[in-house]
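Checklist before submission:
- one chain only
- standard amino acids only
- sequence pasted in full

Submission:
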Amino acid sequence: MAAFDEMKGLNGHVRPGYRQLSEWLATVPRALLDDRRREAEFLFRRIGITFAVYGNAESTERLIPFDIVPRILANAEWAALSKGLEQRIRALNLYIQDVYSKREAMRAGIVPEELVFQNPVFRPEMNGQRVPHDIWVHIAGIDVVRIDPETFYVLEDNARTPSGVSYMLENREIMIRLFPELFATHRVAPVEKYPDELLATLKSVAPSTAPADPTCVLLTPGLFNSAYYEHSFLADKLGIELVEGRDLFVEGSVVYMRTTEGPKRVDVIYRRVDDDFIDPLVFRPDSALGVPGLMGAYQAGNVTLANAVGTGVADDKAVYSYMPEIIRFFLGEEPILKNVPTWRCREPDALAYVLDHLDDLVVKETHGSGGYGMLIGPKACKDEIESFRAKLKHDPSNFIAQPTLALSTAPCLVEDGIASRHVDLRPYVLQGKNGVRIVPGGLTRVALQAGSLVVNSSQGGGTKDTWVLGA
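Returned file contents:
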């Protein structure tokens, strides 16, 4: 099946939202585009926007390639998508709350018990635990793709520590700087208010014992983390302290931050440290990244952790396959956004089908990320397929499989000029006591290699600015 071209549509005629961009691309000199691309790369290097590549012998820091041709969504497209995203995060939150409390979904047979209790990111420490305002997922990154003009599919739910929002914000700043004349011809909805929205969300979920203006901090694993740039960027934009575990301590089940003026109570921690490392007294005892006693303060209700501990039970790729049923069960609504059809290899019939059709399917580890641990059957050689066949037979519950989707394409600047490349989209959804907030757009990731379907930066993918046009 041919991929849907977001600019040219199904019949080769330029779609309304892309009309002005198409005319501009037809007239702008190629040399100017090349100059702007080099200038963008220079700006990203000067700002220091890099990510780390673990296990790579050649380089530990890289720039994520940036494509200067924006991806455009019409206002009506975004309105429909955002409704589906809001529905999704509400259902995710209710599901996680249920896992650690009444477990009605398991008793009703909506989600198998073993899929929860045998999940390595299930946290029994959270059983029966109330979190402030009953909100577990404060920040979600919901990966979506499209295959036709009308349909968005959710590819993945990121409910733990979703990353990439700094690139969404920096991409927009770079585009405004490089192409002011192009912006002047479009009514592009702003994304610059995301830090304000995030800070308002964090403050809204502070414990009831917190003051009217609660103290928020961003907890980072430190300088050598792959997303450290983003951590420091967001702390600066939010106007809050960037802290490491050694900067915090717990006394009397209350969290304090060390400052030059003495200890200061902390009410909300936007943590970018995984569950395993946040408290060596509860989880990994060898962790130097967390805060001893933090879980005690959290369980006492004296500090809010965003996202809550244990949210990983909702972004498992096997649990993902049950999301339509989860939405119906908890909300009594039909899913607005579709799931990609998924075979759960833990089920014998599904496993048999997948083993017979490996060369046609995409196979993923249930806890994999970054484009690692996956097989794209149509692109794989015989040895790769046979290797995955052995893995599936050895541990089928660790894998799911999906059809190879013809992801939509958007115009990109490549070596040979303007060409179509496959894209996905990660919108960022915020949920607080003040409701659900979604800035228009998100991070468009692009598979810059011709024919590639892998958009992850760790696998050579790039990013581009996402323009949602005003009504």
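Reviewer check: The CA atoms of residues 254 and 297 lie 5 Å apart.
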